[in-house]
Structures
1.
Amino acid sequence: MSEPKKGWFQRLTAGLSRTSKAMGEQITQTFVQKAPLDQARLEELEEMLIEADLGPHSAARITERFAAEKFGKDVDEAEIKEALAEAIGDELAARVGAFDPLSGPRPYIVLFIGVNGSGKTTTLGKIAADLTSRGAKVMIVAGDTFRAAAVEQLKVWADRAKADFESRPTGSDAAALAFDSVEKAKAQGYDVVLIDTAGRLQNKQGLMDELLKIIRVIKRLDPDAPHETLLVLDATVGRNALAQENIFGNQIGVSGIVMTKLDGTARGGVLVPVAQASDSPIKLIGVGEGIDDLQPFDPRAFARSVVGLSEVPQ
Ligand SMILES: Nc1nc2c(ncn2[C@@H]2O[C@H](COP(=O)(O)OP(=O)(O)OP(=O)(O)O)[C@@H](O)[C@H]2O)c(=O)[nH]1
Ligand SMILES: [Mg+2]
């Protein structure tokens, strides 16, 4: 993704408002008056983090760190939020990765994978729009040959992004389409190829095999391809995202994670355990359905937004 767009922090904050509202209310209740931090309030804090789906391990680590700094001291709501944001930001700092297809080899081939409805097609569309707006020559490949409406949905995004579009009738072989498209992209000097795939339940081996086949055939054209395999995870499924990461990571291989729909849940904290459990970094986050609602993952900004604080101080 390009540099953060104007107003992106506001979008992030708006997107994460359900999570931050849940956390904020709890913090306000727990720390209504400035008073020394005691064990009872620490426990409430930890409970709140678990409720926001940060997971027991992160919640415990963050609480411990917080206790080490503040136990017995007078703390108010604002200080709690600042300290919490810092602790969450530190938890995530090493788990971030850049998604930058225009500085890689050409054509840069990106494969989108994930379960049904996680946001693959939408994320692909948003990325395509960003890339074409920066002048890149982009090809979109409708590798979801499984679901009838999938091609039309993607075509809408391709038109919106003014990207070229490759598709075949429903039921066609996705791997053959991917092969021919990549071959064409190489011959015609494309900068980026974005390959959509059919949503799959992680327990349906047939569809997993199809993904492996797509990867196998494009490697014949470029042994380093796909240069990026983005696993798209829906934040609203909560801790189920952890299982998905595990299965796709092991069976297919993942180079980066996109977490979508952070705007659709009060449990956006789930990004934290996913980031920690995953071998691959979080690269992008989705905070809405619109074309500008995809952002590079910025751990500090995420942490501040999640607890309801304003922009990262310069
Ligand atoms: N609120 C919100 N909705 C999103 C976000 N990303 C995607 N969606 C919506 O989630 C729904 C599913 O998104 P798709 O992009 O079709 O998901 P998919 O993974 O391609 O789904 P399949 O092709 O069925 O596997 C759509 O209604 C999207 O608009 C997001 O960040 N926030
Ligand atoms: Mg789709």
Note: The chain is about 50% helix and 15% strand.
2.
Amino acid sequence: MATTPTWPGGKSAAVSLTFDVDAEAGWLGEGAEYARRLTILSEARYGVTRGVPRILDLLARHDIPATFFVPGHTAEIHDGLVQTLLDAGHEVAHHGYLHLRSDKVSATDQVEEIDRGLDALAKAGAPAPRGYRSTSWELTPETFELLVDRGFAYDSSCMGDDRPYVEHWEGQSILEIPVHWSLDDWPRFGWNIDGGGNVADPAEMTRTWISEFESARAEGRHTSFTMHPEVIGRPYRLAHLERVIEHMVASDDVHFARLDDIAATVAPRLLAAR
Ligand SMILES: [Zn+2]
């Protein structure tokens, strides 16, 4: 396939590294019973106390700007987290308030997830978020309409293409920067005593993600990877992420960008073609 450099710097591929800082909200949003499960909550907290600093060091080593999706609850209980991310030059985007799954709660609760999330990020010092990612990537018609109504520039929850595209619902549309389960750390490593992933060999992730990058490069595509600090922030897994990054950097053919920057780059072409 012909390579058409359309990304800044004449690079063939664009890559976004994205981190969902679910922290305790990732469990508390599953049910009130998690409030007394101190072990699982402590692993969630590890994502903020150990995972995020390691990730920030890695991104700084390679001078890569990234996008962090932060639930409002996480921003509230982890004082200074949002400011630390902003100070390092990263994007802070919307990931609900208590990480409630839109498909499992009422329309009223969906409004609260969006608006309390906006309030919490604002109180933590973040500029109005440009992007949104739904909990567990389950986007509903009600939340879709809220995103359009609240003026979000992009959503990053759907899988209808492997390039940025325009997602539609009943006459409304939003710029979509797609995701995929194969490009997510959680299905590989997100194990807990009740189930989940299978504590996979991180070398599989390295091979798969490098393959994805090379396919994006061949097609001149943007691609994004989704990670969770308590998962990818375990040292041996982060070492494998660094191998993926080193491969991309060595190609000298990649434009690393935050999702809001990707949205700004592709929006004129995609939204004009609607
Ligand atoms: Zn999440």
Note: The mean pLDDT is 95.
3.
Amino acid sequence: MRKYLVVLALGLVAGTLSACSGSQKAEPVATIQHDSLNIDGAMRLSDVTVPKHYELDLTIDPSSEQFGGTTRINIDLSSPQRVLYLHGEDLNVEALTLVSGTKEIGGEAVFGANGGMAVILNEEAPAGEATLVFKYTAPFKEGLNGLYRVKEEGLWYAYTQFEPLDARRAFPGFDEPKFKTTYRTTMRVPAGMVALTNTKETDRVTEGNLEVFRFEVSKPMPTYLVAFAVGDFDILESEEPLDGVTLRLVAPKGKGALGEYMLKRTPAVVRYLTEYFGQPFPYEKLDIVAVPNFSAGAMENIGLVTFRDSLLLLDSETASVAQRRSALSVMIHELAHMWFGNLVTMPWWDDLWLNESFATWMAAKGLVDLAPQLESSVDAVSGKGWVMMQDARKSARNIRNPIETVGDIHNAFDSITYGKGARVLQMFEVWMGPEKMQEALRAYTSTYANQGATTEQLLAELDKASGKPVGEAMKTFLDQPGTPSVHVDLICEDKPVLKVTQKRWLPAGSDAPNQGLWQVPLCVRYEQRGRSEVHCELITQDTQNVALEATRCPKWFYPNANESGYWRWTMSEDALNKLSSRYLAELTTEEKVGLQSNLSAMLASEQIPPDTYLKSMEALGRESNRTLLLNTLGAMEFVNRFVTDEQRAKWTRKMSALTARRMRSVGYLPKANDAAEKGLLRARLFDSHFALTQDPKAKAEAQKIADAFLKDMKTVPADVAGVALEIVAREGTADLWLSLKLALEGAPTPAARSSIIRALGSFKDKDLHNKSLGLYLEGTIRTQDLWAIMGPSFSDDTTFANTWNWFTSNYSAIVEKAGQQAASNLPRVASGFCSADGAEKARAFFAGQPKVEGQERILDQTVEAIQHCERQKKYLENGLPGYLK
Ligand SMILES: [Zn+2]
């Protein structure tokens, strides 16, 4: 799954997930008391009952309030049983039977907590093969998980999102990833609609007013990868031959043409991955489906990959470079899952990183290879800095974290599993050599094809291919939280030696434990006779000397060559000063961005004076690379919130010197044959430039662009229009609000729609802002867009106060609409605060609400972020006069 914006997460529940699911002994008595059973879906299933094959027969009419069907599961019983444990949630079981040979045994379905379900048979079933048959109905639920429905331009559609724990709400089954089985599906849908699932259709017939679709038997799949889609779709088939894989784009009626761009980009991704793995694409069919209301970014269901519509439906005329980049990146991520997760599946959620870290790592790698003009490796360094901040929290998870509650499963879909995991893989890829990594992954995906595999099995392949103890070193990053902070001193007495020490990196004021010992693959770049050399060595001790292959004392060194390692560094003040000034030109762009990121870390741990930090950031922002500029502007926008009235004029002059010339050279609107660099910079520079300088010219441009967009939404790129609309909406009147509301209804693309929603969320006028927020609860703004409507207020204290008020006053309605799973993430709303008072408000509010699984950890993380924000604000406030001198 590719998470969206803020991390998908949730969690918390009583009871631990121990290894076995209650008593499964043969039960001789005739009556079994329900309360004597331990039916908790949070507990792991035993291997007493093993599913072998599913026959799903579903009747799905998206315009109806419920669906239903028959599920047949071929099982293998290792011993005679009266009670079988499996999963099912909100299912109304009308009949159930167990067929064993010629014997048919009736029974009763009993439901427990967390989607747990027990089948109590009327008599003991013998050991051996049997078939469980359920006839049931179930409601389409609120929220965007399980089997849910969406109304789009007057037409009803049904889609699924089962990962991690919601297949159990669509059909009874053994909803745990260790069980990989085959499926044969039949779907009955209203005439005129099309039904889709993981495999190819074999035939369709009309029965009364229903169209009956039958599908091929699948390859082995875990339940969380099963998927269905029903509706009157536009379906476009790719004309490009793709080695026996049928590739199609599926969109809501009338939207298919917007999918052509990504349909054309997808074959290159398939070829890139099949070449990397040295294997054909594992499945014969690939439907890429644009879903109009979707909680995650995308989901890698076998043969039926679902996407948030903005990632598949792009207007090839006006889509921004950033939007194209996101779409390509998510496509690589999802298709990489065909191997990482789908072909080879983790047996349990503690190994989720085998899916998500790998898919995220592959997306970063693929983006560099498939779209080199985007220079994405530089952005990846910025992303790493952000993840390291999350990793410094006291509440940070391990990449491989024990699962003790259902909440832990939902919490596992976070920036640690995705971002940290990917960067750790990249670090070891560099250390092993990319060819060895590829060799290991080819062996891993072919050895365990169509089966399950664990971390230990993966690490064994890495060791084997590299001939190095990669696994042992990697575990020091997988199994403990935190980022190493490596201090490097250059000592030139006899031969040049680096004295290296390590500890956990923490921001000032943190009370997280600072112990930790990592095996750090250190690759240092250093000057030698006017050229640069790289020396790599594994640091295993807390203090270690590294001898350089050098005859002279290097004039400079950069501790983390090309910034490919997942660790932070510090050095002496003298060495740092030289590196940031005289020898800056010697660094690669990745290293310059790394320098920026490490300076920010030194600021957070209060190891450099705030005015030195601001001056260094300003200097790095003057470099030509866009990422360096944007990082600097991000840092300055944080300061911008607390510049005093007396400081304002000087501050604005300084900021203007940083942004105005760049804004002129990039321009407010794209020109023909613009470089990708400009496309990636434009909207964000526009936004920062105006925020930092309040430039009247920029405001006039914003008005012009907003007017043009509202007149014809197809004439301006949605990202630039979005910035312009936000600028004018902040001071906007009721007339503008009405125009935006009207524009929302006719938005030609998902990107245009998002821009309008963000503008609606930007009004400073309290009544208009409240009317905008109200659009969410009345359903004009879709469930998936909750963060888009709230987000713009997070950087403005007054508007945020209004959002917080709305959020807390309507909390139960918001939870009901979002569904329990998305609700786990809601404490992040408090991240708009930057004061102890705000942290207190957040704690007090959530303490008074019904418990939602997974919220506890998210709330802890958010409160820590607020505390850090307040401390950093005070530190920078003190340094501001020195910077402005
Ligand atoms: Zn994923």
Note: The radius of gyration is 28 Å.
